[in-house]
C-alpha cells in the first residue's frame, strides 16, 4: 500500500515537472522568436538607402555623348537624336557590391552656348566625362577648355574626371593618337579611356572608373 502511494506521488511529481519544463520550453521558444524578430528589425534599421550620384557628359556636338549615355543606360546604340536638347537618364547600378542610384546628364550640343543652365548642371554634378571623337582634332582641342570651365564653375583644383576618346570602331579615320590623348590625361592627372558606343567597347569600364573616383571622394 505504501509502495502504491509512493508510486502515485512520483507520477504526479513527474507530471508537474513535465508541465514546468514545457512552460520553460515555450518561454524559451518565445524568447527566441522575440530575439529573431528583434534581429530582423535591427537588420532593417541598418539597411542604408541607395546613395545618389550625378554624372555629366561634356564635349563637342557629334562626338557621341548621347550614344554613350544610351549604351550605358539601355544597352542600345542610337544614331538619331536632337543634338540641342539637354536630357537626363536614371539608372540603378551595382558598383563594388553596393546598389547606387545614378543620374546621367547629357548636355548634347549645349557646350556651344555657355549658358547659365549649363553652369548649373556642372555645379550639381559629382563626376565629369569629357568626350571627344578620335576622328576629330577639333573636338579633342576643346577638352582643355571644358576642363577649365568645370574647375572654374566648381571652384576646385581637381574633380573626379575621365577623358574619353569615342568612336574607337573608326580606327581608319583616326585623327588623334592614343599617345597624344594619354599625355593630356597625364597633364590633367586623370584617366584616358577609348570607347565605342556602337560596339559597347569599354563603356562599362568608363562608368566604373568615374564612379570609383566619385565614391572615393565622397567617403
Please render the helix and strand layout as text.
Elements: H1 2-46, E1 51-59, H2 65-74, E2 87-95, E3 98-106, H3 116-124, E4 127-133, H4 137-141, H5 143-154, E5 161-166, H6 178-188, E6 191-194, H7 203-217
Parallel strand pairs: 1-3, 1-4, 4-5, 5-6
Antiparallel strand pairs: 2-3
Q: Find the count of extended strands (DSSP E, 2+ residues).
A: 6
Helix content: 40-55%
Mean pLDDT: 82
- Can you tell me the number of structural domains? 2
- Give the terminus-to-terminus CA distance: 83 Å
The CATH superfamily of the largest domain turns out to be: P-loop containing nucleotide triphosphate hydrolases
Provide the gyration radius in Å.
31 Å
- Major sheet details: 6 strands, mixed
What structural class do helix, strand and pairing data support? alpha/beta
Q: If strands are numbered along the chain, what order do they take across the biggest sheet?
A: 2-3-1-4-5-6
CATH level-1 class of the largest domain:
Alpha Beta
Total number of helices: 7
Overall CATH architecture of the largest domain: 3-Layer(aba) Sandwich
SSE string, helices as H and strands as E: HEHEEHEHHEHEH
List the uncertain runs.
20-42
**Bulk shape:** globular
Provide a descriptive summary of the structure in words:
This is Small GTPase. Keywords: GTP-binding, Nucleotide-binding. Residues 1-10 have a biased composition (Polar residues). The chain is of the alpha/beta class. Helix content is 49%, strand content 20%. The protein has helices at residues 2-46, 65-74, 116-124, 137-141, 143-154, 178-188, 203-217, and strands at 51-59, 87-95, 98-106, 127-133, 161-166, 191-194. The radius of gyration is 31 Å and the shape is globular. The model is unreliable at 20-42 (pLDDT under 50).
Amino acid at each position: 500500500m505504501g509502495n502504491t502511494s509512493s508510486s502515485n506521488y512520483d507520477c504526479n511529481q513527474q507530471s508537474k515537472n513535465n508541465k514546468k519544463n514545457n512552460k520553460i520550453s515555450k518561454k524559451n521558444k518565445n524568447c527566441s522568436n522575440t530575439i529573431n524578430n528583434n534581429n530582423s528589425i535591427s537588420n532593417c534599421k541598418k539597411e542604408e538607402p541607395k546613395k545618389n550620384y550625378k554624372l555629366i557628359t561634356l564635349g563637342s556636338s557629334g562626338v557621341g555623348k548621347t550614344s554613350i549615355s544610351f549604351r550605358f543606360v539601355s544597352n542600345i546604340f542610337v544614331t538619331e537624336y536632337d543634338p540641342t536638347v539637354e536630357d537626363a537618364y536614371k539608372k540603378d547600378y551595382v558598383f563594388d557590391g553596393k546598389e547606387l542610384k545614378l543620374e546621367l546628364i547629357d548636355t548634347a550640343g549645349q557646350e556651344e552656348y555657355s549658358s547659365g543652365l549649363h553652369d548649373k548642371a556642372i555645379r550639381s554634378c559629382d563626376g565629369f566625362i569629357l568626350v571627344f571623337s578620335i576622328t576629330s582634332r577639333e573636338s579633342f582641342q576643346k577638352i582643355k577648355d571644358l576642363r577649365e570651365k568645370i574647375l572654374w564653375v566648381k571652384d576646385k583644383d581637381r574633380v573626379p574626371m575621365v577623358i574619353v576618346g569615342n568612336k574607337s570602331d573608326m580606327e581608319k579615320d583616326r585623327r588623334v593618337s592614343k599617345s597624344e590623348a594619354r599625355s593630356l590625361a597625364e597633364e590633367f592627372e586623370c584617366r584616358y579611356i577609348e570607347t565605342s558606343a556602337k560596339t559597347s567597347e569599354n563603356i562599362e569600364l568608363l562608368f566604373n572608373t568615374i564612379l570609383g573616383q566619385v565614391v572615393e571622394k565622397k567617403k
